[in-house]
């Protein structure tokens, strides 16, 4: 290895940082344009009743149709939006559009379903969240029982009392609250009884090997049992194969979401699935 002087190292490092900061800034600029130019789309992934194969809900998942780069996944831009503060505007956009769409499906005479919207940490902690939800419900006329927010454990743990107060205020509006990716965060089980939630969503890491790993299967069973004991709805995410579905059905998991039934799809395609009544698997 050639000897590198401290000075050269410094220059290399700062060039790299410059490049990162620049592409980061470009992403932020493109996101701002994306919102203004309607490049975001809400996709919907069905939540299916495991024993009836009927759609009982949907998770709203944002997609970005970037004219230059094609579809960008939320894993790429949501964390940046979260840091730059753009998540509040984007999050409100998703909330509004999901509720408008759900209301439109109801007015078209389809069997009502609950739509779940992801809320990021920054949105959850924002003072504006409650007002935004109130405003969207008013604006769309959606009955609050058809809206659920998905939050994660890690958002709740810094200041549990404040989080509980916020959750209660949201629940008082009549909407549902779900803990997403349950089992991967670091919340203590002792808090679970204090959280005014309606749903637990078992993280897909557990579902992935329920059919092959007896210990994982036991943990999944325990989460299902815990949900039942606490009178919560339980949703399994990431069910991909028949073996996952049969495990979940046999172990009393009400609701299943995953590629087995369908990937997240555009609203029009989702509506077609709703009209079919019974889900075929993908
Ligand atoms: P999440 O809320 O846990 O959403 C579930 C993710 O798992 C989605 O990825 C979905 O497409 C994927 N998934 C569903 N079924 C399966 C399966 O059977 N197998 C596998 N491998 N994956 C499955 P997606 O849409 O890429 O979203 C990733 C994450 O981005 C979400 O995780 C959520 O944290 C975030 N996100 C998506 N949309 C929004 C949004 O509108 N607002 C906020 N704040 N975050 C969002
Ligand atoms: Mg989610
Ligand atoms: Mg999840
Ligand atoms: Mg996740």
Automatic annotation (TrEMBL):
N-terminal signal peptide: none
Annotated ranges, domain EAL: 24-278
UniProt superkingdom: Bacteria
Protein name: Signal transduction protein
Portion of the parent chain present: 272 to 553 of 553
């Amino acid at each position: 290895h050639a000897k590198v002087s401290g000075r050269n190292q410094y220059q290399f490092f700062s060039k790299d940082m410059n490049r990162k900061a620049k592409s980061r800034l470009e992403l932020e600029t493109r996101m701002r344009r994306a919102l203004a130019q309607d490049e975001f789309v809400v996709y919907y992934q069905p939540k299916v009743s495991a024993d009836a194969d009927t759609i009982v809900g949907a998770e709203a998942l944002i997609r970005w149709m970037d004219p230059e780069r094609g579809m960008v996944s939320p894993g790429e831009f949501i964390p940046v939006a979260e840091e730059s503060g753009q998540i509040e505007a984007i999050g409100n956009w998703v909330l509004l559009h999901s509720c408008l769409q759900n209301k439109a499906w109801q007015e078209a005479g389809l069997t009502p379903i609950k739509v779940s919207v992801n809320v990021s940490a920054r949105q959850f902690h924002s003072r504006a969240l409650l007002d935004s939800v109130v405003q969207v419900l008013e604006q769309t006329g959606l009955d609050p029982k058809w809206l659920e927010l998905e939050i994660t454990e890690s958002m709740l743990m810094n200041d549990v009392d404040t989080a509980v107060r916020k959750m209660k205020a949201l629940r008082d509006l009549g909407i549902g609250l779900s803990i997403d990716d349950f089992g991967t965060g670091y919340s203590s089980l002792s808090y679970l009884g204090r959280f005014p939630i309606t749903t637990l969503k078992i993280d897909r890491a557990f579902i992935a090997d329920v059919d092959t790993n007896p210990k994982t299967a036991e943990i999944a069973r325990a989460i299902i049992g815990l949900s039942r004991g606490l009178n919560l709805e339980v949703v399994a995410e990431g069910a991909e194969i028949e073996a996952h579905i049969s495990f979940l059905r046999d172990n009393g998991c009400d609701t299943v979401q995953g590629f087995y039934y369908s990937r997240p799809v555009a609203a029009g395609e989702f509506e077609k699935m709703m009209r079919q009544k019974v889900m075929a698997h993908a």
